[in-house]
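Q: How would the structure tokens look for this protein?
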Amino acid sequence: MIPPATEYTQAAQRRFELDWLRVLAFGLLIFYHIGMLYVERWGFHFKSQYLSSSLEYLMLLSTPWRMLLIWFISGYALGAVMQHCAGWLHYFQFGLRRTVILLLPLLVGLWLIVPPQLYAEMVQKDGLSLSYWQFYQAFINLQHPLFADYQSGVWPHVDVNHLWFLRSLWQFTLLALLLMPILHSRLLQQTCRWFCQLALPWQLLAWSALLLLIRTEASGDAVRELQGFVVFLLGLLVVRQPDFWQQLTQSRRWLGWLCLLNYGVLCCLYFLVYQPEQLPALLQPAIEPGLQLSFSVQAVAMLFWLLALAQRYLSKPHPKLVLANRLVFPVYLLHQSLIIMAALWLTPYGLGGITEAVLVLLFTLAGSALCLLLCWHLPWLAPLVGLRTSYQFSRNWRTAGLVCGLLLITPLAVKLLL
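A: Here is the predicted structure in token form.
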């Protein structure tokens, strides 16, 4: 699970705004993935019968930056924790615990939470008529011919789907731990301090150019992985850079105007991608590069603006913040499967797009709450979904749990590293 973000400076100041942003960013995923049921031109595991191309412009409000914000907070949290680790032994112990905390819920997700998404996809695309129980009996057989056209995944047809973030977070964490001597070196820290002292527009330009380079040179999933790692490192490196945070505070207004204006540009360019005849033939080749540039600028500008707003308005604690931070991880784990299961069940009733979407949301929230309530009162289940409860296990039980968790996740860890 992603630890709450904390800045460890001389004053040991807690950055509550990053805790708030973490909760809000993961909460946004629920609405975003519900929206994916209804957008016409974007692929998803299941689609509603009520599709809209206009909804895509609303989705563009968060598409450029939503995962980058989560990556930034994850990197910052790791960097804050690592300041209290000294030497390779501490890094190893932390990496071992983090491996179990991240990969045990991923293992549960691969075999229990994600399969309903594949079932719904096959029902819609292939006309699958099996019951879910019959489907699942076939699913646990890695050689079953039913999945001949669905061979991608960690194992054949056993894919991560929306849980790709957990896989990548674990991989990025291990890589960052290996790079810690370099990341904490005086030369790199001085370079970061110099860079963070540059005027924020230059920093924005540099990070936008890097994201644009990745978008133009990489392809497929490599784009989101590389961009995620870059922003993950950004979050890690600015833990001890007060100049970066001070510049955000001073730049809140112009960042907001930039995001608003560029969102308009982004929507116009997106429209022209599908309606190129609206421009003279001479300008049509510039549409796609312009869209990529606008998308990259929006990603960084929105990231910076949200951090600046959070510093201004969300920098104070709240009695429920700790609890909310504990709950977002299991909700993230469960939400997409609940969304797709609800949509599959509601589709035959033809309720209309708005009614259907509201019911999907209610089903997702109710299903998540039911699972959280069950795991909260059965603490031995909680680690399986990444939930930290207030129950205190004895030291022997914690050690036994760590050993059992390592044994369970070892095949998955080996598979992800190869």
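The chain has one domain: 16-114+160-417.

Confidence is low (pLDDT under 50) at residues 1-12.

Upvote if useful.
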